[in-house]
Specification:
By secondary structure, the protein is of the alpha+beta class. It is built from six helices and seven strands. It has two domains: 115 residues; 157 residues, Histidine kinase-like ATPase, C-terminal domain (Heat Shock Protein 90, 2-Layer Sandwich), CATH 3.30.565.
Length: 278
């Protein structure tokens, strides 16, 4: 009996020592993880600050390039040779693309930090759609694509950040132009649904396989390994912008029959109540 008591006491002492050790290890691990988290947060903050400064400086240089282009004039105001005009257009296009890439990187950083700036106000979504379509008419025309918009009469009020939603339209239209062959069709339309406006950008391109309809909205998604059209951020950023507006974005497609990309925007609550009462 005394031996059993001694053994039991020894086991209890060991259990107490193990429990105390576990408590100490847990406290040490928690302290280590907290230190690493603070260090990681500092690293991310420094990265974001650095990226912001670089983006600002690079954009300033790009603006100087554009300003320099505007000052290039032939002597005695003669019409410049065709190759000079074509060269200026190419440089402008490259500068615009670099600006978009910089903007995408800054936006992704803001999304990761939970700081994507969105300031929704009540405005006319039909006017926004018309502005986006008009902006991309030259690019569509240059590729031999017909770009049309079904713009309803009168205002279609919704709650959105104008610049951010123009960015969404730009990403959807740029993708549609990129994947639609010469002679193809792109159409933009909007309709009222319950509590929201639903927009659609459709094209007559090759379409998207069913297995990739959700993947196209992932970060860095590319059509293929040899795709060099961008970093694969446009649709991902568009998804984040639409969701920040409490909307939804998705794609529908049948291979060989084109694609339709949809997104929704909420309508003002006062109009929602009036529409229910009718």
């Amino acid at each position: 009996v005394s031996a059993d008591r001694a053994l039991r006491g020894d086991l209890e002492d060991r259990a107490d020592a193990l429990e105390a050790l576990l408590v100490h290890e847990r406290e040490a691990t928690d302290a280590y993880l907290l230190t690493e988290r603070v260090r990681s947060d500092d690293d991310v903050s420094n990265r974001d600050d650095f990226l912001g400064m670089v983006a600002h400086d690079v954009r300033n240089l790009l603006n100087l390039v554009m300003l320099g282009l505007e000052t290039i004039q032939p002597p005695q105001r003669k019409k410049p040779p065709a190759y000079v005009s074509a060269g200026k257009v190419r440089i402008q296009r490259y500068v615009a693309r670099m600006n978009r890439l910089i903007g995408d990187l800054v936006d992704v950083t803001s999304i990761d930090a939970g700081k994507l700036a969105v300031e929704p106000v009540e405005a006319d979504a039909a006017a926004l759609m018309a502005e986006a379509t008009t902006t991309f008419q030259p690019a569509a025309r240059e590729k031999g694509i017909s770009l049309s918009a079904e713009i309803p009469e009168g205002a279609m009020l919704a709650v959105f950040d104008h610049d951010r939603m123009l960015q969404v339209f730009a990403n959807l239209l740029a993708n549609a132009i990129r994947f639609t062959p010469s002679g193809g069709l792109i159409a933009v339309r909007v309709e009222r649904i319950r509590g929201a406006l639903r927009f659609c950008v459709s094209d007559s391109g090759a379409g998207i396989p069913a297995a990739k309809l959700e993947a196209i909205f992932e970060r860095f998604w590319q059509v293929g390994k040899d795709d060099r059209g961008g970093m694969g951020l446009g649709l991902y950023i568009s998804k984040c912008i639409v969701e920040a507006h409490r909307g939804r974005i998705w794609a529908e497609s049948k291979p060989g029959k084109g694609s339709e990309l949809y997104f929704t925007l909420p309508i003002p609550s006062s109009r929602r109540r009036r529409s229910r009462g009718k």
